[in-house]
Structures are given as C-alpha cells and as structure tokens.
Amino acid sequence: AQKITQTQPGMFVQEKEAVTLDCTYDTSDPSYGLFWYKQPSSGEMIFLIYQGSYDQQNATEGRYSLNFQKARKSANLVISASQLGDSAMYFCAMRYFGNEKLTFGTGTRLTIIP
Amino acid sequence: GEEVAQTPKHLVRGEGQKAKLYCAPIKGHSYVFWYQQVLKNEFKFLISFQNENVFDETGMPKERFSAKCLPNSPCSLEIQATKLEDSAVYFCASSPTGQGAQNIQYFGAGTRLSVL
C-alpha cells in the first residue's frame, strides 16, 4: 500500500525566508504522481505543484519548487521568499496511475512570522 | 462551471438523521472523487466516479454511505443514519481524465457535516 509521510507537524518561518516542507513516500510501483496542496484557514484545497515519477526535471511553479529525489523517495516542497499569505496547512499526496485516488500525508502547518 | 461547486457549506444533523451532500464537477471533467477530512489533517478516500459509473468504491462504508453521479445532475453523497463519527469535512474533487500524467484533482470548498 502506498504511504505518504510528513514528519513536520508545524513550522515557523520568518517572512521572506525560504522554507522546505518534507515529504517521503513509500511505493513499489514505478508509475505515480506526487502533488502538493495548500489548505488555508478558510478550508479550501488549493493545488500547488505536480511531479511525475518519470519527470527528469524538478517541477517549478512560480515561488514553489519540488525537490524530487526518486532514489530517496522524497518530494519536498520549497517555497522561496515566503509571504504572510503562505501561512496554511500543506499536504503532500500521491496517486498511482490507473488507481486514481489521492493518498495524503498528515500535513504540515506553516506559520510565517512578520 | 470553472470550479467544483459543493453544497451546502455546512450541514447540521442529529444522530440517526440522513445527510445529503452535493457536488457539481468542473464542466468537461470525467472523474469525480469524494474525500472525508477529519481532525483537520486526515484525508480518507471514499469513492470515485468515471462519468456516471463507479470507478473505485473501496473507501466507502457501504452500510450507511451511498453516492451517485447521474447525467445532467450534481453528484451526491448520502449518509443514512448519521453517527457522531461522521462529523467531518467532505470534499469533492474532479479531474479531466483519471489516467495519465498531470491529471490534477481540483477540489471544491467542502461541506462541513456536524452530527450532534
């Protein structure tokens, strides 16, 4: 069974600093996708970034980048130049191709300090 | 529409009452997923549909939960005889096709179910 582990329940980061949120996963399947979602206090789930298991390059989307280390089975989210609006819960998720449901980690609560 | 629309935003039920949640996926999306979020950080997959057909129902507690996606109607998730443990936020998500790379699931705002 696939499993996602996020070991940081909470993080506090100074505004404008970069932050790395950890995510490791467990799978024996070669074909999968990794996702990061942001959940602000208002509750909605916002898609941030995607990485496919066969992608050669790390994904980037604006201030978000994914540090994908396949051999280590890690997919850490890096947020550059953090802003107050980045304060939220962040969830890492994985999907096998063919079994389309998302399996989520337990999330990291990020708080940006002014 | 351009976003996944879930109604109602909040639903309050007494234990044993029925609850029905609705989800209109993004127009053109073939797949619909239901997830349950408890305690603010645990997501549980419930069921998925490919158009109006059940694709995966391995997460559904079948004795009290049922779901449908009928043509030209919002999808629905129904809980018969709610229990206190059903209190959670129920999210619906849709994706353009289920298979292949970058099939991102877009989430609705969720329905908060409170069972008293």
Blueprint (SSEs and pairs):
The complex is a heterodimer of chains A (114) and B (116).
Chain A: E1 3-5, E2 10-14, E3 19-21, E4 24-26, E5 32-39, E6 46-52, E7 60-61, E8 64-69, E9 74-79, E10 88-96, E11 99-104, E12 108-113
Parallel strand pairs in A: 2-12
Antiparallel strand pairs in A: 1-4, 3-9, 5-6, 5-10, 7-8, 8-9, 10-11, 10-12
Chain B: E1 5-7, E2 10-13, E3 19-24, E4 31-38, E5 42-50, E6 53-56, E7 65-68, E8 75-79, E9 88-95, E10 106-107, E11 111-115
Parallel strand pairs in B: 2-11
Antiparallel strand pairs in B: 1-3, 3-8, 4-5, 4-9, 5-6, 7-8, 9-10, 9-11
Categorize the overall geometry of chain B: globular
Percentage beta strand of chain A: over 45%
Q: Spans of chain B of 5+ residues with little confidence (pLDDT < 50)?
A: none
Uncertain spans of chain A, ≥5 residues at pLDDT below 50?
none
Q: In one word, what is the shape of chain A?
A: globular
The pLDDT mean of chain A sits at 94
Q: How large is the count of helical segments of chain B?
A: 0
Strand content of chain B: over 45%
What structural class is derived from the secondary structure elements of chain A? Answer: mainly beta
Oligomeric grouping of the chains: heterodimer
Beginning-to-end CA distance, first to last residue of chain B:
34 Å
Radius of gyration of chain A: 14 Å
Number of helical stretches of at least 4 residues of chain A: 0
Order of helices and strands of chain B: EEEEEEEEEEE
Secondary structure: helix percent of chain B: under 10%
Radius of gyration of chain B: 13 Å
| H-E string of chain A | EEEEEEEEEEEE
Structure explained in plain terms:
The complex is a heterodimer of chains A (114) and B (116). Chain A has strands spanning 3-5, 10-14, 19-21, 24-26, 32-39, 46-52, 60-61, 64-69, 74-79, 88-96, 99-104, 108-113. Chain A is mostly beta strands and 114 residues long. In chain A, strands 2, 5, 6, 10, 11 and 12 form a six-stranded mixed beta sheet that branches. With 116 residues, chain B is mainly β. Chain B contains no helices and eleven strands. Chain B has strands at 5-7, 10-13, 19-24, 31-38, 42-50, 53-56, 65-68, 75-79, 88-95, 106-107, 111-115. In chain B, strands 2, 4, 5, 6, 9, 10 and 11 form a seven-stranded mixed beta sheet that branches. In chain B, strand 7 and strand 8 (75-79) form a beta hairpin. Chain B is globular, with a radius of gyration of 13 Å. The N and C termini of chain B lie far apart (34 Å). The interface between A and B is medium-sized, with 25 and 30 residues.
